[in-house]
Design goal:
single chain, eight-stranded antiparallel sheet, four-stranded mixed sheet, 16 helices, 19% strand, globular
Length: 367
């Protein structure tokens, strides 16, 4: 079994701390042409020079073109077996030919990724510097391996939902990585200030991403275009949220959502519970009805099971008719804040997808 390092995940709430971290990251990162000879040693070292984390090892073994190689190398628990096998295939001409013109991405002696010859490095430090941060306020950031996810709200662009202090800020979440595993991109972001619940939204038909190719000026221009394209969609997101407030969550909503195959499996536990699927065969009518009723109970209980203080205040209220689909979705985003940083991001993105789905199906949900 290969002894790879865990992927480092760091969370930031302060812009200056993030800026300092990516400055250090840039200084410690280099792009090294893959040597003509590769030797694994002690299941941990490459050429007695570099260790590797999970992402770096997966990227490298994927470049060999041998399907399932990473998984296969983790089957045996006996030391050195994986290293011996890899050393043998690294002597094959066809394997080494595939690795020509590839580069290791190395950070402090650790291989964290592999990129090709056409890949243009665009560091997180440079990416952050190129963002129009003077007109935005950073709310949170996460760096996993080299993938940076940083969220900003736009100054003076928020809106009130129900009056009073219930305000939602709007802005953008940016993603970028310098190990070749992600394009740089923008997602629309909403942040409800009363509970700091966040969601990340996509707009159908808009390509708000670009790849690390071409010169720096070309990438900076594409980033600027992405940002402006996203800003043009702020009203779309505002209307999407307002639409959910118009859709009540009733005693029949769970059944309807299941029949319409709404993307509800957002929280890892829900994915494991395998909700009712209308297209799936359940043997007989009784088994189908049993599965449907079980799933209705699970969906109806999502706010009470996963919601926090603000969700529970709505669901426990005597004014049941005031519950909306927006409040239902907020159960997911409030729960997300109790999760690890990467899971939180995943839930917030899936919640944004569910919001889009609900808005599109407003008429069906109301009738």
């Amino acid at each position: 079994m290969l002894d790879y390092n865990p992927i480092k995940v760091e969370k930031y709430n302060d812009y200056d701390e993030l800026r300092q971290a990516v400055e250090v990251e840039e200084e410690c990162t280099s792009y090294v042409p893959i040597p003509n000879q590769i030797n694994f040693k002690d299941d941990k070292w490459i050429n007695d020079n570099w260790t590797f984390n999970e992402n770096g090892l997966k990227s490298f073994l994927s470049e060999t073109g041998v399907y399932g190689l990473f998984s296969a190398m983790n089957v045996s628990e006996e030391p050195q077996i994986a290293s011996n096998y890899l050393n043998k295939i690294m002597q094959q001409e066809d394997i080494m030919k595939k690795l020509q013109n590839k580069r290791f991405v190395v950070s402090e002696g650790e291989i964290i990724g592999v990129v090709g010859s056409r890949y243009t490095p665009y560091s997180n430090r440079q990416f952050l510097e190129d963002l129009p941060t003077k007109s935005m306020n950073m709310t949170r950031a996460v760096k996993s391996n080299s993938l940076m996810t940083v969220s900003f709200t736009e100054l003076f662009k928020g809106f009130h939902l129900r009056g009073g202090d219930d305000r939602t800020e709007i802005g953008q979440t940016f993603k970028s990585s310098h190990v070749g595993d992600s394009s740089f991109k923008s997602l629309l972001t909403t942040l409800r200030t009363i509970c700091t619940n966040g969601m990340h939204h996509k707009i159908d038909g808009l390509n708000m991403r670009a790849y690390h190719t071409g010169g720096y000026d070309n990438m900076k221009t594409r980033l600027d275009n992405i940002i402006e394209l996203a800003k043009d969609q702020y009203e779309v997101i505002k209307e999407r949220v307002a639409t959910l407030l118009e859709i009540p969550y009733t005693d029949h909503s769970a059944k309807r959502l299941l029949y319409m195959e709404a993307p509800l499996s957002i929280i890892p536990e829900l994915k494991e519970q395998k909700l009712y699927q209308p297209q799936k065969k359940y043997g007989d009518t009784e088994a189908c009805l049993k599965q449907l009723n079980r799933s209705i109970g699970i969906v109806d209980n999502i706010p009470m099971t996963y919601g926090g203080e603000h969700t529970l205040a709505v669901w426990k209220s005597q004014y049941r008719e005031k519950r909306s689909m927006y409040d239902f979705v907020e159960a997911f985003t409030e729960y997300a804040q109790t999760c690890d940083p990467q899971t939180q991001i995943n839930i917030e993105e899936d919640a944004g997808h569910l919001t889009s789905w609900l808005a599109k199906h407003k008429e069906q949900l109301l009738n």
